[in-house]
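[Meeting: bench + compute handoff]

Bench side (C.D.) handed over the final construct sequence. Compute side (W.E.) agreed to return the predicted structure before the next meeting so the bench team could plan truncations. Sequence as handed over:
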Amino acid sequence: MALAVSVFCASGAFADDCAFWGDFAITAQGDYEARLEAGQNDALERTKELIGYGDSAPGSMGHVYRDAVVEGLKARLPRDDVFDLGKQVCLSYPVGTFDPDALD
């Protein structure tokens, strides 16, 4: 489900749209909170399925992103912090290279 999101700027430079990954983290947070409210015993496991990247290699971009977001969910971070967490994972890579689906 994940996409590498890059925007080609008029100047010819590429700039990552890392806010997408912050928004996706918030989506995961909403899913997790709804599952908790519904009383699902496996809420976190089900939300991990939504996030994806469970079969990615340890240390890969997808694995790093998933682990970071899951830790934020377990810590019950506020919405803005979950957004920042997802965005910061993307920003931790060189511009234009964040691709959670990449095999590395």
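W.E. noted at the follow-up: Confidence is low (pLDDT under 50) at residues 1-16. C.D. will use this when planning the next construct.
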